[in-house]
Write a structure and sequence with these properties.
By secondary structure, this protein is mainly α. It has a single domain, classed as Ferritin. It has five helices and no strands. Bound molecules: fe (ii) ion (2 copies).
Length: 166
Amino acid sequence: MPSERFVDALNAQVAREFAASHQYTAIGAWYAGETYPQLSAFFYAQAEEEREHALKMVNYLLDTNSPVNLTGVEAPRASFEDHVAPIRLALEQEQSVTVSISELFEVARETRDYRSEQFLDWFLQEQTEEESSMSDLLAVAERTASVPMLLEEYLARETPGQHPAE
Ligand SMILES: [Fe+2]
Ligand SMILES: [Fe+2]
């Protein structure tokens, strides 16, 4: 069984994944309200992914006979000054999740919990992908800031984070 310290830290991460999901739902709804259907769909899909991350963690707690402690989730930010701001917020959120998952990894290492280290590998890889897709999206959003529909067209055509040689 993972250490109590790791279990507490993983439960805290579950809360952050749900908070991320909640924030992406708020962003998806904001874009829908502003009539950006592609951006709205993109963020709703991200919200689903964050919920899946939380559930993967819950399942790991269950698999290791550890307590699952769900907490309340804070209200997300729901209003934005322009159509680029939510993407900036999303990138900051992904970067801070990468830091917290790395801290979780450190707890596993310090407690010689190799199984939990291995479990976290997938999440670290996932963070690399999510940071990459969000920073691609932000780059295109900033480049096309004065013609927002170009960003919608880009999203209809491309998958942010995917490189041409992939
Ligand atoms: Fe996540
Ligand atoms: Fe994420």
